[in-house]
Amino acid sequence: MFALARVLCLIGIAAWPGLLAAQEFPSRPVKFVVPYPAGGPADIMSRIITEKMAAVLGQTIVIENRAGAGGLTGIAAVAKADPDGYTVAIAPCSMLSMAPNLRETMPFQPLKDLALITQLVSVPELLVVSDKLAASTVAELVAVAKAQPGKLTFASTGIGGMPHLAMELLKLATRIDVVHLPYTGAAPAVNDLLGGHVQLMFADMPVLLGSVQSGKLRALGIGSRKRAPNLPEVPTMAELGLPQVEADNWYGLVAPIATPPAALAKLHKATLEALHSAEVREKLAAQGAIAVGNSSAEFEAYVKSETERWGKVIAAAGIKIK
Fold first, then answer.
1. Does position 14 have pLDDT exceeding 80, yes or no?
2. Nearest to 126 by CA among 26, 68, 211, 66
3. Which residue of 84, 131, 217, 308 lies most exposed, with the fewest beta carbons within 10 A?
C-alpha cells in the first residue's frame, strides 16, 4: 500500500510542471503571424483583434508580418513552429481551403498540421467595374462581355486567391469569357482598375470600399448572402439571379497541431471575448469585415466544406499552381 502511494506521489510530482505551465499560460509574449505585409486588410484586422485579446490574456501579443507566396510562407512557418501556444497566425481561406486544391505540393496540410482555433472574420467579396466601362449592372456587364469575348480583363491579387476564384465562379455561372491579369497584391491591381487598364475585379470589401464610396469605382454586386451595411444599395449576387456566385473571404486563427489543449482553450476564450466585444465588432465593421468567432469543431467543419466547394470550382476552371 505504501509502495503504491509512493508511485502515485511520484507521478503527481512528475506531472506538476506540465500542469503548472498550462495554468500559467501565457507567461510571456505571444507571437501572432500575419502572412501579408503591414498595412493590408489582414494586418489591420489582426491589430484590432489582438489589442483586445492581449487585454484578456494579460500578456503582450506581438504582430509579425511574414509575407511571401500569397500567404504560404507565413502559415507554413507557423505549422512548423514549436507547439507551445506562443505562435499563432491569422490564416486566410486561400491557405486553408484553396491552396490544397491548387498546388501539386504543399509545405503543410491544413487539417493535419494546424490546430484550427476559430474563424475570426468573414469579408464580403465585392464585384466592381471601372467607371470607364459602360456597365451599371451585372446584366449589362455580362452583355458587354458576351459581345466582346476575350476582350475584357479582370484583375486579381494573385492566382488562386479569393478575388481570382470569385471571378472564375462568375465566369462559370454566366459563361462569359474575360481574361485574368494576376497582380502581386491588392494595391497595384486596384490602381490599374482605377486607371482603366483593367475593366473589372472581385476583391475584399475593405480594399474597394473607399474607391466605391468616392465614386471612382462602380459596385455591381456582393458575394455575401446578405447586403453589406457599408454599401446597403449594392445587391447580393443571389438577388441578381446568381445564387451560385457566393464568395466571402474569411480568416481563421490557427496554431501548430500539437499545441497543448489548455493553451488552445485560453487562446480560444480570449479570441471570442475580443470578437464579441462591441468595440472590436464596430472597428472590424468599419473595415468591411464581419466578426465571427465559433467553436473549433465548427471552424474545422467549415474549412472542410469550403475545401470541397472551392475544389470543384478550381477543377472546373482548370487552375493549377506547380
1. no
2. 211
3. 308
